[in-house]
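Action item from last meeting closed. Structure (234 res):
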């Protein structure tokens, strides 16, 4: 089965349609699938629902799709540094389903494991719990959360072999593994593709069974907020 494709547009060919649900990895600007997001923008696919921790910044990450009004709904934990995200939400132009970060990650992981729902204590007694099933276990109240099942997952990894086994690098691992798991089709962009056997099996972060299409590309790797201090005198 062919998994390696020549470009982001080629890897997404036949997968995109208006109104679809996409799970995207990344946290802030760390580990975001920037090449695949750019290809979605260029394809013009609209009325999209994204499950992602946040939406990047105004001109990078999912933010570029907010600028073009291609996103209908965000399932997120954090509005972040994206002023357009905030403006559209407060202006009633964008639907937003807030999820605590751990709940969002577990909803993705649960979907990837075929689990339709689970109970969590996170959010009990807050607006997060409104309209959700409550149940007591051992004298404590929990709320029901549902697994997420996306039409397509788009993620960023450090290395892949041609069968789809993935390695993530440091904090760029973040939401990428659970996001990859919950899509019917998972498309991955990586910095390097190697042959089978070149990755240590004990170090694999996500097995290739979850991965359907891979591209290799160059990445900008922006820093969301740069904090510096004056250089001390010699």
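Sequence:
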């Amino acid at each position: 089965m062919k998994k390696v494709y020549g470009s982001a547009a080629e890897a997404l060919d036949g997968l995109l349609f208006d109104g679809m649900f996409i799970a995207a990895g990344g946290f802030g600007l760390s580990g975001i699938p920037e090449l695949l997001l750019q290809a979605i923008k260029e394809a013009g696919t609209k009325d999209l629902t994204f499950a992602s921790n946040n939406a990047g910044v105004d001109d990078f990450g999912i933010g570029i799709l907010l600028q073009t009004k291609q996103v209908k709904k965000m399932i997120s934990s954090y509005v972040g540094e994206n002023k357009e995200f905030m403006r559209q939400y407060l202006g009633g132009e964008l639907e937003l389903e807030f999820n605590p970060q751990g709940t969002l990650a577990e909803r993705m992981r649960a979907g990837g494991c075929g689990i339709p729902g689970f109970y969590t204590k996170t959010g009990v007694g807050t607006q997060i719990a409104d309209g959700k099933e409550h149940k007591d276990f051992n004298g404590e109240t929990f709320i029901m959360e549902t697994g997420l099942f996306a039409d397509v997952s788009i993620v960023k990894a450090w290395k892949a072999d041609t069968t789809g086994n993935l390695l993530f690098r440091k904090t760029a691992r973040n939401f990428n593994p659970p996001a990859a798991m919950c899509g019917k089709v998972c498309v991955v962009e990586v910095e390097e593709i190697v042959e089978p056997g070149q990755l240590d099996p004990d170090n694999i972060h996500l097995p290739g069974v979850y991965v359907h299409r891979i591209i290799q590309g160059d990445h900008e790797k922006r820093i969301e907020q740069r904090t510096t201090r004056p250089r001390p005198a010699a």
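Note appended to the action item: The radius of gyration is 18 Å.
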